[in-house]
Amino acid sequence: ADMLIKWGRNGKFLACSAYPACRKTFNIDKDGNKEKELESDYTCPNCSAPMIIKSGRFGKFLACSTFPKCKTSLALDKEGKLIPLPLGYEKCPECGKNTVIKSGPRGRFLACTGFPPCRFSMNIKKTK
């Protein structure tokens, strides 16, 4: 399907014209060209596919390259490094799946990769 330029709260982006069946989107630069997806050294903790670096409204993050099939995303710090998990919380205390750090409007939080149906999440205090 063709890609269309759309407007969102973060500016212009490319979106698949077959939405909602196709949910593929790309960031675009100031000239309207598709930004190159930046590869990372990380693999998806859920499906083992390569992760790519993307920009969102809460900063840069890692996204699974198989999106929308796998919707896993991981928060990055200001230097673009993966934020380490709090000690003792590598696995979800409710269902046993892996946990990941995400960024949201109220800051970073720990979330279960089993969402949904597992709804475990926990706020993370900022450290200096």
Could you please describe the fold and organization of this structure?
The protein has strands at 3-8, 11-16, 25-27, 38-43, 50-56, 59-64, 73-75, 99-104, 107-112, 121-123. The protein has no helices and ten strands. It has two domains: 1-36, no CATH class; 37-128, no CATH class. It is globular and about 45 Å long. With 128 residues, it is mostly beta strands. It has a four-stranded antiparallel β-sheet with strand order 4-5-6-7, with no helix packed on it. Strands 1-2-3 form a three-stranded antiparallel β-sheet, with no helix packed on it. A three-stranded antiparallel β-sheet has the order 8-9-10, with no helix packed on it. The protein starts with a strand and ends in a 5-residue tail after the last strand.
Record the SSE blueprint:
Blueprint: E1 3-8, E2 11-16, E3 25-27, E4 38-43, E5 50-56, E6 59-64, E7 73-75, E8 99-104, E9 107-112, E10 121-123
